[in-house]
Design a protein that fits this description.
seven-stranded mixed sheet, single chain, four-stranded antiparallel sheet, 11 strands
Amino acid sequence: QVQLVESGGGLVQPGDSLRLSCATSGDTSSTSIMGWFRQAPRKEREFLGNLWWSSGNTYYDDSVLGRFTISRDLAKNTVYLQMNGLKLEDSAVYFCAATFRRRLSGRRSADYDYWGQGTQVTVSS
């Protein structure tokens, strides 16, 4: 089991930056992939990017490539989502997720077994 707690959301203006944190606890040594998703009202949950735990490699959806960056601090058991150049359409609830399973793309919600509660990001002028 893994517990995930997101933080760092808030109200920002277009063009601002924000860093979200995902604090992990529990059996993190078994984690294979950590993912970030978001969900806006009346929309499906959207894949943003993921981090493959053993290699540290990261992958991003084209919609955020170059603006969003995933990183981790192993000492703090925390994964981060750095978001730059925020746009109005980035407003959503942001979730981190984890899976122990392997041989996955890690780009689908169904690939993940553990989810945080989400943190709200609102971009408004």
